[in-house]
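Cross-check.
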Amino acid sequence: MNGQPISGTPVRRRGLRLGALATGALLLVLTACGGEEPSKTADGTGAKGTGQGTAAPDNAASQAVVTVLPKDGADSVATSGALKVTAEQGKLTTVTVADSKGAPVEGKISADGASWEPLAHLSAGTQYKVHAIAKDAEGRESAKDTTFTTLVPKNTFIGHYTPEADTTVGVGMPVSINFTRGITDPEAVEKAIKVTAEPAVEIEGHWFGNDRLDFRPEEYWKAGTKVTVELNLDGVEGRPGVYGKQKKTYSFTIGRRQVSTVDASAKTMKVERDGKIIKTLPITAGAPSTTTYNGQMVISEKYKVTRMNGATVGFGGEYDIKDVPHAMRLSTSGTFVHGNYWAPKSTFGSQNVSHGCVGLSDTRGAGDSSTPAAWFYDRSIIGDVVIVKNSKDKQIKPENGLNGWNMSWSEWIA
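Predicted model, tokenized:
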């Protein structure tokens, strides 16, 4: 034996076997790292395991863009015309605006969903929060939240109103508001005042000059009606640079129906209560040189005793009576229905001797409840109607007192 292997074949087989094992191991490693072969989409492109191709993920951002004016943090913002919310590449679905106390601002989204605007003015010196949401064509939402503060006015006005809250008044009582400053934008001011009634009835406003606004229905109120007045004047620019500062809601009630008719020619007054004549009283009306106005007049004030001085109503020193009893005002210019203790009792029902007022027999001091003047005073309330007819005078002007009933409905609403 010379030490040489008997055959080389076993050696070669061992090498092949080792090489095959190494190759298999390499393939195993490659397979483990590479995973499965990518699946094919319908168009032949590859998509890793999900099978969703190149579609956008579900959490893609909304394309809708919400814009709020004024800008976030803005100060001294105008109370009208400044607030607007818009949406581009989408439609508004929700817009809420509220002040710092949570009181909402009523508004409306346009039919196309592109914008929102308030239906009324904003209050002055108030911070507001805006929350707006819009959706794009895919239904994805985009939201925006901002705050801003309205201006603090340097000049303001208020409205003095009648009747007072929680009172019971007669069927002729209008809502009358006298403003402390002349109004140059009556439409804006009237829009900020709402008068409603229960049972419901149409109520309209009418301006007398630029500082008085009255509201009434076409006919006298029905007995028992509850009237509610909403004054939303805070922030209304009534004239350039002058803003309202009232925000108040109050109510009053209409009592029984009492309408009294004075016949200046017959020198009587018939008192009608709820459709029935309950009393006919003898009166004295204006003398031939100082006649009484004709027309429908509303009792606006009551005084058990008051002073009447002719100088205050254009009669110079013709009279100055310091203790006129049972006086009820019918006009701003000085027309009253009142007690008269200085004329003989025979005067009432037979002569017209007054300076334009309607006089009823009375006693000095208003202490006798049995007199005609006391009887009428005790059964009358502010807002009751007194109609004067057959006087040789003109009809009273609607603005002279609370006497808008002397205008036709067509004139009133014109």
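Confidence is low (pLDDT under 50) at residues 1-56. Helices lie at 9-34, 186-191, 372-378, 409-413. Passed to J.P. for a second look.
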